[in-house]
User: Which sequence fits this backbone?
């Protein structure tokens, strides 16, 4: 696969940005795209790339003529408050820009390194910027692609039946989510109000009592398909710009009462958090692995879902919780689970192909999320519903506080990264969010 041989992923590359040479998330082999503002009044947002502990302002680079000869040389698509205009320039532009940034940041390229005026304007410490939502998201879809997660949930809610519903292994199950309430990492998440019903009582309206997170990966559509035009599994990768970590906050008590028969509604529409840096499929190519979760006993795939045998990604994921008390005394987030995105039953290419199989058009900036990433081990369960088995097996934090579900003041910290022999480790940074009380 020639993307794996992309010169930007060469492990021998080094950057003159010193903080990019450690073992952090953002070495020169990553170069994820995001949107930020400097923390000064009136400063406009711009598109940037993470490099080590810094971010490179691509708008400033464009103004300095550093993108001459690339497909974006005529319009500064980086002087924007979203990635959409840049992404709409197409896959050749993504690749050319990432290639140019790689070249500019390389140890042996002096253009930017030795131009103090441009360099000091364009290169800013990440501690001095505020990350924004990376894309203007028109539509958001959430899948349910981990068979481990779906099996656990099925065992809890339908103890007498088969844990997986009959459709599960035939099609990637999903629902249309809410784009307007997607927020960037770091924004607070208010505990929702909602209607719930205890088994032997009348429904009541009040603060959600069973607030949960869901660890997921999301991918942004970068190339649209027109209404009526299906996207095949083989072609799907060319329609995907890159990936982020997603926290699909979930109100389990609201969900339980409302979900029949049309699926989740208010239980999911109050907030979804995403990590700010979009890691491109080009950067992720070295971590593409065989898709091995479909077993010999599983039903055969229909033709339109075949062809994804190489389309899994080995992305390591972990979830930490820091209560308000833990943050007060300076205790690091307590890691409650670790897993890998390679354990998903459906691939991102199958999800995109299935989504468009009716002719449904996906547009630039649409976010498709995977569903909770759970693995075969108990330690790889990606939400509290599973980890505490519906609250029957609470988690104990280092402060001896117990958690069945999330309490006000809890901060969720999700991290993701890729590493393997022969490639440079790259990461997604963090997806954070603090729960604030219902109002
Ligand atoms: Mn979800």
Assistant:
């Amino acid at each position: 696969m020639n993307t794996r041989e992309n010169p930007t992923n060469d492990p021998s590359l080094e950057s003159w940005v010193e903080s990019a040479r450690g073992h952090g998330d953002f070495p020169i082999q990553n170069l994820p795209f995001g949107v930020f503002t400097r923390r000064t009044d009136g400063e406009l947002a711009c598109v940037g790339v993470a490099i080590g502990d810094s971010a490179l302002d691509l708008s400033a680079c464009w103004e300095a003529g550093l993108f001459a000869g690339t497909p974006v040389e005529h319009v500064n698509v980086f002087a924007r408050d979203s990635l959409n205009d840049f992404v709409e320039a197409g896959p050749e532009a993504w690749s050319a820009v990432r290639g140019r940034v790689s070249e500019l940041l390389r140890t042996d390229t002096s253009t930017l390194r030795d131009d103090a005026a441009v360099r000091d304007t364009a290169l800013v410490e990440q501690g001095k910027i505020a990350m924004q939502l990376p894309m203007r998201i028109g539509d958001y879809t959430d899948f349910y692609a981990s068979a481990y997660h779906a099996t656990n949930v099925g065992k809890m809610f339908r103890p007498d039946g088969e844990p997986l519903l009959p459709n599960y292994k035939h099609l990637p199950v999903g629902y249309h989510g809410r784009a307007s309430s997607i927020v960037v990492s770091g924004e607070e998440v208010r505990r929702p109000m909602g209607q719930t019903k205890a088994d032997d009582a009348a429904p009541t309206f009040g603060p959600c009592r069973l607030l949960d997170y869901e660890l997921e990966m999301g991918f942004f559509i970068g190339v649209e398909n027109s209404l009526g035009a299906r996207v095949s599994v083989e072609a799907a990768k060319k329609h995907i710009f890159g990936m982020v970590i997603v926290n699909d906050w979930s109100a389990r008590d609201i969900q339980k009462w409302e979900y029949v028969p049309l699926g989740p509604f208010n239980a999911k529409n109050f907030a979804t958090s995403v990590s700010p840096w979009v890691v491109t499929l080009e950067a992720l190519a070295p971590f593409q692995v065989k898709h091995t979760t479909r077993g010999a006993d599983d039903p055969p795939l229909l033709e339109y879902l075949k062809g994804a045998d190489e389309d899994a990604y080995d992305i390591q994921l972990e979830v930490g919780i820091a209560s308000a008390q833990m943050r007060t005394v300076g205790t690091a987030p307590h890691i409650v689970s670790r897993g890998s995105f390679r354990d998903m039953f459906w691939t991102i290419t199958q999800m995109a192909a299935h989504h468009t199989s009716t002719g449904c058009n996906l547009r630039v900036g649409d976010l498709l999320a995977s569903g909770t990433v759970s693995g075969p081990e108990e330690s790889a369960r990606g939400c509290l519903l599973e980890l505490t088995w519906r609250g029957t097996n609470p988690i104990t934090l280092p402060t001896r506080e117990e958690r069945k579900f999330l309490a006000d003041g809890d901060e969720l910290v999700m991290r993701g990264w890729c590493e393997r022999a022969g490639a440079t480790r790259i990461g997604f940074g963090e997806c954070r969010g603090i729960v604030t009380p219902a109002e």
Summary: The first helix runs from residue 58 to 63. The pocket of manganese (II) ion is lined by residues 142, 214, 216, 248, 371-372 (CB under 6 Å). The domain at 140-436 is CATH 3.90.850.10 (Fumarylacetoacetate hydrolase; domain 2).
